[in-house]
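Q: For a teaching handout, I want to show students what a protein-ligand complex looks like in token form. Below are the inputs, and the small molecule is adenosine-5'-triphosphate. Please produce the holo structure.
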Amino acid sequence: MEETKGRKVPTLPWMRSPVDIANYEECPVTQVPLLEPRLKDALQNLGIDSLFPVQLAVWLETVGPGAFDRDLCINSPTGSGKTLAYALPIVQTLSPRALRCLRALVVLPTRDLAVQVKQVFDSIAPSVGLRVGLAVGQSSISDEISELIKRPKFELSSLYDTDYPHEEYQSAVDILVATPGRLMDHINTTKGFSLKNLCYLVVDETDRLLREAYQSWLPTVLKLSQSNQQGLVACSGSLLFSRLGSMNMVRRCGVERGFKGKSYPRLVKMILSATLTQDPSKLSQLDLHHPLLLTMGVTRYKLPDKLESYKLVCESKLKPLYLIALLKDLGAEKSVVFTSSVESTRRLHTLLKYFGELPVKVREYSGLQRQSIRSKTLKGFRKGEIQVLVSSDAMTRGMDIEGVQNVINYDMPAYVKTYIHRVGRTARAGQGGRCFTLLRRHEVKRFKKLLEKAGGNDSDIYPLPADSVKSLHPSYLSALEKLKESVESRRSKRARAIFKPSSTGKRNHNDSTARK
Ligand SMILES: Nc1ncnc2c1ncn2[C@@H]1O[C@H](COP(=O)(O)OP(=O)(O)OP(=O)(O)O)[C@@H](O)[C@H]1O
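A: Here is the structure, written as tokens, with adenosine-5'-triphosphate included.
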């Protein structure tokens, strides 16, 4: 990153001349150029009357002549509608299919996010006869396989004959939404699972996915999809071209930039985030083709327009009291409270549980819990049966929960990106929302700088009702006492479990290691 007159300029030249999403306005669905009538109806049935600016900007780069000639890198605020921005053109482009095969892959970092994105595809893809699959490990691998792969007719013989041709297996889906771990499981072990016909790869929450290698999922996907594309070029005019349909035929006649020495058609990539990385070494892993950046405004990051930001400044030991006073003040509004770690999430949740005077249902949501518990909590929160979630950063990325009015940073986030993703759980889709950050005095200056980096203004002090903190003291002390007892009882239970002899009369394994 170079610095000119205080403004940071991206190192990569193509990032310096982006398409500015701020120049686009919402566009009524009825006026979206070249939109398939069946998709128009599907959108209207969902209550979507207009496309958001990012959706229109992406649409115009992905339909018509010259469409999808370049890989797209989309940096647009939280809640601005990025999911539909990629789902809509992919579904439309794949709609004129002759044969079912896996042609689009969407990768997301967590299971809950993948489930959410699958729902968006499911709301439009069936209207044009496309099927969407999910590979996240939500069900057993065999259940997942039966959803993703159509077995050959003579299944019995295929089971015993190791030479049975893989081509006999067919994909049961056109689009797959996956997390990297389960995707690799299918690549490595599922008979008939193939990326050889892949046309579109979406890497959502790109910066998070590129940070973690997950068994080299990205190079593997690129290799498996590209190796075949050489073959497809060799037999051009055949399978793929007929499958892609009229729109891609138009594209073939369009501007075919930079294809010298490269296979064509190629795997088209779309990468997205509200905090898209500008790091050349990270982006180089994606092997982007003539990339085009779409970004909102001139600053690197942008907070949602209708987000109001407040701070509450207090001593460290008074933070729980300030939080409780704030939650009482917010009443039954849906809120997410973020802490700095899974351990403090658990502690804070237990303390709130013992406090007992809150008029709302509070639940923990963190990486320490089993997935089934997390999913149940999320369901309850979506339905409004739970009003407050105490969460670790497992919730920060992408989760779209209707009606979240407040985000509370119980601990100030260490990084600007964390702040952006946390506060982005509210003020989504053009709605309003509030963010509160609890600060210790020495954090005030740092927080101001963090807000500047995030593209926001300094925040006002939130005025809690007079005496609201003081009046909580007695109940707080009793809750603290209960918390202490609960921690001690958990500790002694753990100790008993370690020293308990097993049914064979021997001490258990933990015991022997503990004594070493
Ligand atoms: N055109 C539209 N009209 C009305 N609502 C929409 C439209 N497009 C998307 N939405 C709604 O906006 C919300 C945010 O969309 P989405 O989750 O795609 O945002 P995002 O940009 O991916 O956010 P994040 O960066 O936090 O992942 C969703 O609830 C979605 O249903």
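A: Two things your students might notice: The longest strand covers residues 307-313. The pocket of adenosine-5'-triphosphate is lined by residues 48, 50-52, 55, 76, 78-84, 274, 398, 400, 424, 428-429 (CB under 6 Å).
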